Amino acid sequence: MPKINEAKRKHWLRALRRFKYGIKVRAKLGVLQTICEQVAAERKGKQKWDAPQWGHDRWVTLLYTCIKNNEFPPELLEGFVKTAEVTFMSSHKPPTAEGTVDAVDLVCKAQSVALRRKFGVFE
Asked: Which among 118, 116, 84 has a CA at the least distance from the CA of 101?
């Protein structure tokens, strides 16, 4: 069992809480809804939808730097929107801002260990 650095753990938790709050603010302001409509328009008529592979180091690193610096680049927000609604059975359902906020929670939870490693929580 790896030893946990408590100072870095606090830094990780604060940064994650601040990042998720920023996502929720963008949802309330309508920023995510605009991206949802854009993604829905791109997907219209396509048989195969793309979504980020969150386990890939490129996406984990992007997520880490954005959480650490409290940044919200369009590429990351679009990745979360694409993750929010990936349903192959019912392709007429567009992504929503609420679904995107849920997707952020799911991605952060799934990549928690990798992100904490990058933050230096484990010694």
From this structure: 84
